[in-house]
Write the structure tokens for this entry.
Amino acid sequence: MADAQIKAKVNQKLIESGEYERLSQYLRQKLIENGWYEQVTELASDTLRAQENPNFEKLVDLVEPEALALVPEFVKVELLSMIKRFLEGIVD
Amino acid sequence: MSTVIVSRAPPSNNANNKRASPSPRSSASLSSSSKRKLSVSGGPSDPLGNRAVARKTVPGEASSAHESHGFSSTMKSNGTTNGDSTGSPKSNAKFSSGGGIMSGINVDRGLVPQAIGCVHVKQLLSSPSQELALKSYRQAVRVALELRDRTTDISAFQVRRCRTCNELLTTTFMCLQCPSVGCKKSKHAEAHSRDVGHIFGIDSRSGNIYCFACKDYVYNYTLEKIRGEKEDLLEAKKLKKRHQMTSELSLDDKQLVEQNSKAPPCQAGLRGFQNMGSTCFMSVILQSLIHNPIIRNDFLSGSHDSKRCQRENCLGCRIDEIFTEFFTSPTTTGYGPALLLTTSWKTRRSLAGYSEQDAHEFLQFILDQLHATSDAKSSSDVDYCGCIVHRAFCGQLQSDIVCPNCRNVTVTIDPLMDLSLELRDRKSDASRILSLQQCLEKFTSPEKLETKYMCSFCSTRQEVTKQLTIKRLPLVLSIQLKRFEHALKSNKIDDHVPFPMQLDMTPYTTNSRSKKRYVYELFGVVCHQGKINTGHYTCSMKNREGLWFNFDDAMVTLSSEKQVLKSRAYLLFYIIKELS
């Protein structure tokens, strides 16, 4: 259970320091800049139009894998390194 | 003793199904594919909605009065419940409840969920538990939306955490009927709904309702209204405005309005212009004004009263007349702007005749005229002019000239009505066409001027560096891509210049390291086909519902985002995202 405790502590520090908000904003900005929102919106619209009985869960099942794959590699790398840096700063 | 019967009509009864559908805005795909008729009924219930549940069905026996709104009451003799039941809460039907608000409802898993709301929400809101449900929902929405913006407050996350696994950073659902909160990812909310029979979860960040029976987010009109009002309230608080909801008119006033106003026709404002002899350059600019939310709202609110205006040859009146015509007349044939034409010619001789003109020049002309004929303009400072044209289009451009010798910076600020961008990077690869963002980057990057200037500070002649940045962004950004080169030979650059639907202008502002992002949304594109002197203008515009249309003189056709992004743009119109 030590893992769960550590995770909870990390989340707490993430939120209270404002880092979570910064990371979220950064991710949002990068995704906009790289056209990810547009691509996924189009994908979701097309998928939805093709569904006879539109359903959220079905939509997620169909769109989520591709949406995740469409995230530019460099964004994932950058975000991971930002998280790493944050962790190094709070863990001793 | 009561019976619960779920009946299904035979598939051949399609026509009936359409009429039976209660949703006023069923999407076409749903109503046409709906093959089953649902009738859900139960016996009388106590004030909390609890029913004595006996789930044995008696073929052919009609149930008593309590029927779901909008559904037909016929029962089929082959109606069966979803499996057997003996009245225990954990019977075969997954979401039946032993004692909560939704007790007595058996759900057929194969039923078609509705586009707006769902049968379960509808049932809930027409049951005696309605008031309780609305009250709970209001509270939950308050919690969700007020906590959403407290992004560094750990307690805000604690309130919304999953009570099973204690996860903070994940989507959770608050139960409508009890204090339970469960997460989506590990299916703890779903488990709760299964175990206790509470099928409604409220998304703890958006306040949207999730129905675990339908496995879908459902948007019921009444509940959406509550959620929407709360969102508006919070938004108004943010903008520090006094929140004014729809002003309550007196009965007399309401009657007066009804008797003297005309409802706008379907797809109001969607109409083409007749080409009256190479006037397509006008048509496209007029469409860009009609689809400009700020200009449109201003004219439709009656800010330029063409019936009372005393000016001669007033272009403001002509534009007002066009708005009136487009938004009140049910005609869909092309509009012939004869009066606008003659007024333009009388105002500027160079426009007279039937030769093709440049659309960008016409844009500048008409904006200038709208400013001149506006009652709201200020005579002196154009930077802070109150006319709608300046309020919409006018920003500020800052020019910094740096002397390499003494590092003195001369700052000049000029009004900015539109941006004209070079498409090629002459320094590096002159043959490569840049994207819109790259053009903007080039426009705002420091440039060493070739001619030497005398620096007034250190009194030496130097090769100064000049940099342009946008000091104040306008609400509406109009961009001209300089496709027409007038070098040794007049040449048109016809290549496709990539541009985005959403444009972040922050990097090109004077304070480019600002944390606040200035994001714009595209609403209009003007294209030119053909050669430099002869050619044809068409445009694509986005309407109020977010649909894109192509305008080719009088012909208006439905387009798509994909198509628009492929077009060879000449003029681009963006509006700040909050207003789009």
